[in-house]
Write a structure and sequence with these properties.
Elements lengths: L6 H4 L4 E4 L12 H26 L8 H5 L4 E7 L5 E10 L2 E4 L5 E4 L2 E8 L8 H13 L7 E3 L3 H11 L4 E2 L5 E4 L12 E2 L4 H7 L13 H11 L17 H4 L7
Parallel strand pairs: 6-7
Antiparallel strand pairs: 1-2, 2-3, 3-6, 4-5, 5-10, 7-9, 8-9
Length: about 260
């Protein structure tokens, strides 16, 4: 995405991490320079956030300069320095207090790092740039892909996670977050975990999955088979997980980042 100012004057690295002050790491300048830089970065976040929302079919953006300024979240921007520079990718993460269920139905209070927004500009997709951006975040945060909770993932994002990290077995949740097998491994819990299952959770693990994620967590894999075979399928196994769907089924019908 291009802007009416030179991106290369703002960012000196290919991947830039931003926090509430809306200034790149190591920024040096007078107060007037800081205000100008933060204003331009706010515009970048606003425009990229709107583009991400449109791509995901959302009613309003998840990311903006104002939202980042008033949070403890982090935003990673992927820069293409060619010419005056363009911004080609955005990834927003932040820690959240969540109540989630493991595969047995036990209730946990946790505070994981969450992926809140992820977008690669349409002109730069299918080039592996999304993976470069995601890998940078994983390395800096020192986490594994299965350690993250994903807020309302799109079908494209779920396919991305399956393609590059083999994440396929979703643990059903009653909120908008998606977690995968391995999420609870060696994870400390806040205030312990409850072994009491509500009727809703019991139903979930009796084979009736709740709605999770932006398009329901089970949909990306179930709809692939249904689209190709024109049949209705129940993607859930008896344990509430999603069975393996071969990558060659997903790739032809999904535009991966």
């Amino acid at each position: 995405m291009e802007f009416p100012f030179t991106i290369n004057n703002l960012f000196k690295e290919k991947i830039v991490k931003l926090k509430y002050d809306l200034l790149p790491n190591g920024f040096r300048g007078e107060r007037r320079d800081m205000i100008d830089c933060a204003s331009k970065i706010s515009q970048i976040l606003d425009d990229m956030g709107r583009a991400s929302a449109i791509a995901q079919g959302l009613n309003k953006p998840i990311t903006s300069g104002e939202r980042l300024r008033n949070s403890e979240h982090l935003v990673y921007l992927l820069i293409d320095p060619e010419g005056k520079g363009t911004v080609v990718g955005l990834l927003k993460v932040g820690s959240k207090n969540l109540y989630v269920y493991d595969h047995t139905g036990a209730h946990h209070e946790v505070k994981p790092l969450c992926v809140l927004d992820f977008y690669v500009h349409e002109s730069k997709q299918r080039m592996g740039l999304g993976k470069i951006l995601y890998e940078h975040m994983l390395k800096e945060a020192n986490v594994l892909p299965q350690d993250l909770a994903i807020d309302k993932p799109s079908e494209n994002f779920l396919a991305f996670l399956f393609k590059y990290y083999g994440l396929e077995h979703i643990i059903p949740q009653s909120n908008n977050y998606v977690v995968f097998d391995g999420f609870f491994a060696d994870r400390p819990v806040m205030n312990g975990s409850a072994k009491v299952q509500s009727d809703h959770v019991k139903d979930t693990f009796d084979g009736i999955p709740p709605t999770v994620g932006r398009h329901s967590a089970f949909k990306p894999v179930s709809t692939m088979g249904a689209i190709l075979q024109n049949v209705s399928v129940n993607p859930y196994q008896n344990d509430g997980t999603v069975p393996r769907i071969a990558p060659d089924i997903i790739r032809p019908v999904m535009k991966l980042k």
